Amino acid sequence: MFYHDGKLQYTVRVDKPNPQFAKLLQQAIGGIEGEMRVCLQYLFQAWNSRGPQKYRDMLLETGTEEIAHIEMLATAVCLNLEGSSSALKDEMAMSNPMVEAVMGGRDPRHILSAGLGAMAADANGVPFNGSWVVSSGNIAADMHANVMAETTGRVLATRLYEMTDDSGMKDMLAFLIARDTMHQNQWMAVLEELGPDAYPVPNSFPSSLQHENVAYSFLSTSVNEVSNATGRWTEGSSIDGKGIFRFEKAVPTGGLPVLAPADKEIHGQIEQGVAPDPGFIDKVKDIIGG
Amino acid sequence: MFYHDGKLQYTVRVDKPNPQFAKLLQQAIGGIEGEMRVCLQYLFQAWNSRGPQKYRDMLLETGTEEIAHIEMLATAVCLNLEGSSSALKDEMAMSNPMVEAVMGGRDPRHILSAGLGAMAADANGVPFNGSWVVSSGNIAADMHANVMAETTGRVLATRLYEMTDDSGMKDMLAFLIARDTMHQNQWMAVLEELGPDAYPVPNSFPSSLQHENVAYSFLSTSVNEVSNATGRWTEGSSIDGKGIFRFEKAVPTGGLPVLAPADKEIHGQIEQGVAPDPGFIDKVKDIIGG
Amino acid sequence: MFYHDGKLQYTVRVDKPNPQFAKLLQQAIGGIEGEMRVCLQYLFQAWNSRGPQKYRDMLLETGTEEIAHIEMLATAVCLNLEGSSSALKDEMAMSNPMVEAVMGGRDPRHILSAGLGAMAADANGVPFNGSWVVSSGNIAADMHANVMAETTGRVLATRLYEMTDDSGMKDMLAFLIARDTMHQNQWMAVLEELGPDAYPVPNSFPSSLQHENVAYSFLSTSVNEVSNATGRWTEGSSIDGKGIFRFEKAVPTGGLPVLAPADKEIHGQIEQGVAPDPGFIDKVKDIIGG
Amino acid sequence: MFYHDGKLQYTVRVDKPNPQFAKLLQQAIGGIEGEMRVCLQYLFQAWNSRGPQKYRDMLLETGTEEIAHIEMLATAVCLNLEGSSSALKDEMAMSNPMVEAVMGGRDPRHILSAGLGAMAADANGVPFNGSWVVSSGNIAADMHANVMAETTGRVLATRLYEMTDDSGMKDMLAFLIARDTMHQNQWMAVLEELGPDAYPVPNSFPSSLQHENVAYSFLSTSVNEVSNATGRWTEGSSIDGKGIFRFEKAVPTGGLPVLAPADKEIHGQIEQGVAPDPGFIDKVKDIIGG
Amino acid sequence: MFYHDGKLQYTVRVDKPNPQFAKLLQQAIGGIEGEMRVCLQYLFQAWNSRGPQKYRDMLLETGTEEIAHIEMLATAVCLNLEGSSSALKDEMAMSNPMVEAVMGGRDPRHILSAGLGAMAADANGVPFNGSWVVSSGNIAADMHANVMAETTGRVLATRLYEMTDDSGMKDMLAFLIARDTMHQNQWMAVLEELGPDAYPVPNSFPSSLQHENVAYSFLSTSVNEVSNATGRWTEGSSIDGKGIFRFEKAVPTGGLPVLAPADKEIHGQIEQGVAPDPGFIDKVKDIIGG
Amino acid sequence: MFYHDGKLQYTVRVDKPNPQFAKLLQQAIGGIEGEMRVCLQYLFQAWNSRGPQKYRDMLLETGTEEIAHIEMLATAVCLNLEGSSSALKDEMAMSNPMVEAVMGGRDPRHILSAGLGAMAADANGVPFNGSWVVSSGNIAADMHANVMAETTGRVLATRLYEMTDDSGMKDMLAFLIARDTMHQNQWMAVLEELGPDAYPVPNSFPSSLQHENVAYSFLSTSVNEVSNATGRWTEGSSIDGKGIFRFEKAVPTGGLPVLAPADKEIHGQIEQGVAPDPGFIDKVKDIIGG
């Protein structure tokens, strides 16, 4: 169960409302790098958690914290929108086309749909999408999904930090950026705890069942003789310690694919032939030259 | 520029067509863990690459390989669907409800829309979504997105491996599982090359600007006195080596949020008040008790 | 800020795991009638709330409760999936096509993507969509959105109740159905408090500005002489008490729409003409006969 | 069957084309509050209607009227776009960055994809989504969905009214706002006709089967002692007249959720354990400490 | 404006309700090949029509007819679902897993969300998407979009025809298939009327501005010496009569792409360098080796 | 399998970076008319190809070429974004609201999410959608889908050409416009090869099974006596040569649809009645008046 106290985790202050910045902040709410994603991702991972209890508990702790981050950002959007519709109206009514342009950097739905409130959408107004919530049932894969979410999330937050000179907004973002630092470290700490034997993920699939001969080969698909794509990944021991990196030219070993004609019920064109009616095939053989 | 030879990277053989398995394979094509995502992700990262040339080259090498993986899986879907529509017709026409059920495990659009072919969709027929293609402009974040894609991708492939007894399909999947092993290692090798100073990502944002006091604190949101969520992430040096993990109870420091009434143009209800028209507020004060 | 205790609001018990029912339960998690929608809707309405403080507080209370409902349903999905993948494997491997069909009623992504866990998606695997989260900035419109969510939500829950004979699941659903009863009443109580002057929503738009002559007319678009569509809405005082219902045949008063040819830069076909270049129009006049 | 006469239901006049306003109007066409949603919603409810014939007839009458509303708005978009691409070209070519900004408030796809026409999308260019079309099979739930659609729809229309000074556009919107007034009343009239016994929706589910002890309790999830969230909904008779409102602190009665380890086929990490293979569990017990 | 008479354009009769077939029919309602798409596409093309009036009139005629087709198919879905929920309940309650599978071929939302009604979604429950509604502002491109919609639509209808033995359903589909025949011919008739000078579309872009040297060349991207991809399109006069088809090996003439380092505000990794701050670049030169 | 050489098919040169134009270019990458769609469409059609081999080969040739077009456009987006974030920061920080507006025409995610790179999205930031990838299994329908894609694609490219005065961008677009010319011709060449007997598509469905009496009738749904919608499509031989065009007034022959009450488990309102429980119906007869 969940509880609340109505207070903000950290101060949200806007010195000068800026509807354009409100739009940018939406990316941190409902964008793929945003707080709705990490919040729901950690909560679903907790609820679906099978295995050591401490991971479930930890995910629940942090998933709950992230609700407060959405709350802070939603409040920041609201404060940045205050007074903005009156200004917009005046601008829209002016005859000067330059003035009319002011609404450009805004999300019009902040006025039309949300009445000066935050939305479950990204900086372009594209709605939050549940497919971004990754809970795979494999804890190592989940932790990598979480590190990924926090790295792209912190990159987003630092970009937002650069896009504003509002000291209140900078202060709030500096708080969120610090939390992203912790969360990056937190999920990496789980990976450290799982240890090097976690790889390749999943570690419960016997390596002997995979095609070992291509499990540590960098396959070059370049038509050029010499590749510039060499590095740590083309020589030395593999990162998982279970193989030796190799550089190879990719070659096709699978031959040309051959598909049968489609069943009659599919209603391709006659020229495509049909299966498995040999009579029909005889009839159209001349046409399709097959 | 890109080239092709029409051949498969590895053999695709289906001993016994199985339209249900064709549906499952769609997840590996157009699902979030699938090959379309990694293919486009690596190619966009290559095309957008700013920085050391070898990373662009490597991304292009592997992004190109992934096109061949989509090709293999699409071929596998086609082969698994052969002869399946005739059977379906017979089943649909039978009076036995059990028999009618056979179509249950299928994707009906494999027949209705694709005519026994593969689609750019997942195992539930949900279309591939471009939002899954992550290219952040930060190479460390991108590499984490790639490791994540390959761990969830390999988990998916091993589950598909378990879901079939077709030796041809198992053989193809064993090949793809091996390639996922390499690709996990490959992106981790870049991270190793970038070194421990890569964290927190982005490493170009001065740490002094973030709220250092919460940058390495595990904040517990539990109402319980004692937490079970302790571990590597609550004590010792942080993974990025730049702080010491701490355990703290989360407390709100931001106070209650206060929003102004909305502008008149927003047309909330009268009872909500309006801004910035003080006359209007006076008029409705009794009603809203504010 | 938000807190948790890791416990379930009400018991979640599954006597006999049923992966088909797990799929149905997803509609109550990530479907448009589901708990993710109401949870986020109430929280966003709270965070965006401008006006009397008690409404913000109430929305926050109930929005927080709904997180616990998602938690219960996610747990129910997990419990219904236990042991189901082993069975599926056996079934898939059997030669009897009837047996292979068993997987039909399942969401394959419960295995492939979530590893026997719940997802942020509906009963067809379609991801949760942020556009469903309605927070309009008008409290009466918001309350109607909430009543609607709780009526469709309770209808869904009663249908799920009918679809299972598992006593644990029936017990959990009976709890959720009761909460939906309360929440329907709760939002209607706000509407009662706002009173009859709340309509038409928004009540802050002066009625004199609308076309009063069609504000209370039922317009019949039927080509038939006599309409069967009469009722309370075609006679008597209007529900908002501000007009008299009338029945009228709809008639077009707007004439035929006339659009100018498109600008030259749009590159329609020559036959469509262009604006505002009269020379070009002269040249193609014979062709388009305009 | 359906018929048309090619005329507009009401005059659509644009005194001064404004591509920015064309973008805003898209919300009223293809947005969640827009006319496509209500049109399709009423038509699907009519086509799916089971029960008294007059409701089907009424829904068909009004669903058909709404097609004419989309027609009016599409025409308004077209008229607002006339001459706008030529201007845009000039602006794009100018070196002054201020001038380049003019295109900001436009939907670029009005030019690129629609050639100065309307689209089935919202004000941000997000496509219309069929999930918004609610037809639940329960007439009370459907009517509430319709009231909700007309309240958010009228709020949207009044905001658009504020955003323009074009007298033609104001006149058209004043017509649509009046129709929204009627339609709000119309659906509420059905609810009045259904009477107070319609609640809780669905009224066909025996109340005795729900957990009556929580069916009329406002559950407070606040960690604070005293709640500010009291009101009509915490005391007195419930709105449906079937209970007494109570205020209670929410408490968890469901205990901690316990999930079994996942099946082996799911390929979690070894550290997560597997079910139902006891041998495997024994083998990894030391590692996972479970 | 639009009108209706409540009657079906053609008889909809279901001899034996079949919920599985109801699911398949959804593709013809809300799928990309379905009637919602063509209906809205023709109506939007009519409303956006600039140019000869007769095309607007014709699009309006046929767009209006298509509403009646959605109506027929929605009715067919409803009739196929009658009595199906009772059966489902019984099946779900049985202990035999084979029996439980019966629900496999159904769309569960037909029960859970629509209460035995049709939905604005495809055969997998994926919602109708407004992006499918093509209205380009170029009449030749629009007509090609329409021919495409009617060819894929008729292919879909014939596949549905094969999937049922219900004589009522076959009769209804035979009617719709005939209408698709007419509509294919109808849009091709417009293209015939526009004549051969319509190509390449748009014909209002001066051909001299395109790179004529590659305007009629089939570029082979195969790494193989000899191509099997020759045909009508590699020799002879081009179809538009304005060039001669050629076969050429594709060669890259654009050189290697070179991107500058990203701006500092973007916060890539230090190793990626930044622009345009040369001092920063000096500082990290050793690291990135650039 | 696929290969690459890292070079661009044609020069991509940007004389003056323009982030607004970068946004417009996104439509040609990830929009429905864009290169991702045609690329994936041709590749999937090739991989799914059943029938004459040469069509598979040709589709593979051109699908591979289209990857290079995405590459060119992604490079163009990157080059147009260079240096743009620094400028944006300065603009955002300025107090002049006119200046703040500059960001209007940009896609904010080009900075926030992609770090000055291209995305798999359209000009409004709406993600690429896999549903646009049409591969029907019928070669004639596929070819019409391809002609449609290339006509709308070329229209888009010519509009982009008009929107820029950058000579590098014009040169690149002139190359792509020429390739669209070839591809339009190429798919029409296949249709020419298939010959007039390809229609109506699919030609494998016996025409005798469709309702021939309405297969060549233009059905007028206008309530007006005289139609202006006559033309080539209302008289003379049909385009497929298999019928004679007729003009007819549309009339409903299907009568009024009659649906049974819903099953009890569906939980409509009592007033809607239920099936198949006659006792229940008796009980509520008075209420519903049925």
From TrEMBL, chains A, B, C, D, E, F:
| Enzyme Commission (EC) number | 1.11.1.6
Residues annotated as binding Mn(2+) 1 are E35, H69, E150, H183
Recite the UniProt keywords alphabetically: Calcium, Manganese, Metal-binding, Oxidoreductase, Peroxidase
Which CDD domains does this chain map to? Mn_catalase
GO MF: catalase activity; metal ion binding
Q: What detail does the entry give on cofactor binding?
A: Binds 2 manganese ions per subunit. Binds 1 Ca(2+) ion per subunit.
- The reply on keyword Metal-binding is yes
So what family is this one in? Belongs to the manganese catalase family.
Q: What is this protein called?
A: Catalase
The organism named in the record is Dyadobacter fermentans (strain ATCC 700827 / DSM 18053 / CIP 107007 / KCTC 52180 / NS114)
